[in-house]
């Protein structure tokens, strides 16, 4: 049976000449412009002063280290590139750069200290970002490459870092136990708690006359023991390579360290633990450029996710599941760059039938070991007397149960709004999708700003009535306006990505490519579904 017979072609109904399409395109391009501006700042590290100081010391910049580590023409799927953006005390991008790319033909997670930002010191946000990168390594069985030059913990924030930060070392050693190696290349300082990073890695390379790894530097040693010792004899690369054994390889310079890192990856003889049945890759029939006009810049305005699917899947072919039932939940099978996927997309508010349909579809994909792609754009579950009596809670719980216990890889793309428990049912961050990216029009909150402000208004009026006092209408109106603005400011894509609620904001036109890379990465680990679920309330 041919693929065309098995997967019908989606027919697009998009009018690229309409005012709505043109307005969406212009506003989405403007939002992308803001993201690009923020990215330029993040790519600049600590700014010209600290970049120049770093270069004057004969060092290579962190992003250049990553570029040299990767294979020529390799992709680099950067994770949380705007972490910390706009946050007090944090630099845009934080003090870590990391993502997934090819090293010696192997998909690896490459992480570099951003030494031009606070000397590469770990801040609360960079700790979150590092933790997320470690999670990606563990979930997808990726070889880890750590390019270290860090001043250790950001001491003024030690109370936010010290206790939770210890989990990083635990996860590193657990990966080693699971035969997921970490290769640590030390380009500069890695002191105090940071010394345990190379100490707990599977392979360690240190750069001659640059790397310094010790639990306590000369001043602290003198204060603690009275002993006088220099940096090199305490923790220099040559000492660790010839005496202590902390270092496995002594690199002559940074380029040599990168060569050694690539050589180590090459001799791992790394292999993926799963592979899909080989299929021909077909380009979509419709232009991905059109996604900018399809995605609603105003998330209150719905759009048909079939139009998105038609532009990201192979040949625009899609086998829809239960097309006449639960119409606000679009489910079906397709391929992306040859990888089989089950797609779950919101076409509006989630009703009971939509939730039941979604839960069943997740079970079916698990029974066939097919990865899931969630396209989120929902205001959440439907509320009201009739819907409560119909069992929206128990039916919504079925879908959340299915998402929670599903074991096939899940990848989530936020294409619009993500409000309330709809975020949970559609595999939001708390449900551990392998990757989660957002479009620039994305909005995330418990509910929309107007709705939340309205709810608080009703509560305050009811409270006043119970006390028998009059409402100050002017003060109440000001409070509503302030609340609405606060929620709107705190629900933007840039606000969310700064706090590592996602893995980054992507250009909608790159969605197919990002999904293909994410799926390829996921296949480094076994792709196995489950038939084990929690109790479904009927």
What does this 3D model show about the protein?
The structure is a single chain. With 538 residues, the protein is α/β, with parallel strands linked by helices. 42% of the residues lie in helices and 17% in strands. It has 22 helices and 15 strands. The protein has helices at 3-6, 19-43, 48-56, 62-69, 124-140, 158-165, 167-177, 196-199, 218-225, 231-235, 237-244, 254-267, 291-294, 305-309, 352-367, 385-390, 392-405, 422-425, 449-467, 473-489, 493-498, 511-522; strands at 76-78, 96-103, 106-113, 143-150, 182-191, 203-207, 212-214, 249-251, 319-321, 329-336, 339-346, 372-378, 410-419, 435-438, 443-445. The strands form two sheets. Strands 1, 2, 3, 4, 5, 6, 7 and 8 form an eight-stranded mixed beta sheet that branches. Strands 9, 10, 11, 12, 13, 14 and 15 form a seven-stranded mixed beta sheet that branches. Helix 18 (422-425) links the parallel strand 13 and strand 14 (435-438). The two termini are 39 Å apart.
| Rg, Å, rounded | 25 Å
Q: Which structural class is indicated by helix and strand composition?
A: alpha/beta
Average pLDDT figure: 92
Strand content: 15-25%
| CA-CA gap between termini | 39 Å
Shape: globular
Provide a count of the helices.
22
Total E-strand runs: 15
Could you name the ranges where pLDDT drops below 50 across 5 or more consecutive residues? none
Helicity level, as a percent range? 40-55%
- What characterizes the major β-sheet? 8 strands, mixed
